[in-house]
Amino acid sequence: MPIPVDRSTTWPYEDGEPGPFSYSRFSSPTVAEAERALGELDGGEALLFASGAAATTSLALAFLSPSRTVALAEGAYYGTGVLFEELSRWGVRCVEFDQTGAPPDGVDLVWVEAPSNPFLTMPDLPAMAAHPAPVVCDSTAATPVHLRPLEHGCDFVLHSATKFLAGHDDALVGAVVCRKPEDAARLRELRTRTGPVAAPDVAWLLLRGLATLEVRVARQTETARSIAERLRGHPAVATVRYPGFGGLLSFDVEDADTARSVETGTTLIANKTSLGGVTSRIEARFRWEGDRVPPGLLRLSLGLEDPDLLWADLERALGGP
Ligand SMILES: *Cc1c(COP(=O)(O)O)cnc(C)c1O
Known about the structure:
12 strands; Aspartate Aminotransferase, domain 2
């Protein structure tokens, strides 16, 4: 592996002055190394946070203030909408918009998701770049293997690195990659003052995940393509949402009861939440998101298992031919 984990919280001053590392709330060697690696993948300056949600909170606190408005993509990660609702007590406003078109005028921050989780729509990135407000692209599901949002004019990339980037369901970690050094400096200042930095062990697990990111995502994409196609041909499946790349898709069965029997009927595919791990999982999103999603919507994240075995498992749960 690249480097050992340095769990120190303090390092000696050099000639009476703080060196590159002094106190681990500011930064630490393992975190800095993972930031360097991720920054290279996305083409910007990366900062790690304790979770994707901590990264979202930090971006909001650093770049919004009372009476400022964020335009959030409709159908984006449920937790991001809930987080902005929480921040509404502090005067931050949130409006939703259809990310396949232009963002509304007069907003102070644009927040899109590529592709959105669990609706799998893609943002119109040229329309975002043409808007005067800074643009955040949550690229958790695309990963830098499939999309480098900074090259499309976005100002920030956000990752729940808990998902594909760390990739093994054993590290909770978030990241923001900044296009402008001055934005990265402001975000680092906020992180240092408020404290949501990632831990060194987790940064090490992220480094381990990044080492296999490309092969994992290539395989997950190949499997997801094949499963999406077979789902489209299945009589019990109404709608399949898949943008053509990445390991995440969603599809609809008739109603909530049918969704329950499918998610509890698979054996190889676990019935649990989250995405981007090396093992496949399925869940009805209705339990978390309520009426915001169709009651029969199932979100499926493909792992590295044999695609034919995955399909056999799904087909059996769907009631078979
Ligand atoms: C999971 C997720 C998040 C939140 O990340 P955590 O690491 O769970 O805090 C944000 N955005 C998307 C698209 C996600 O899937």
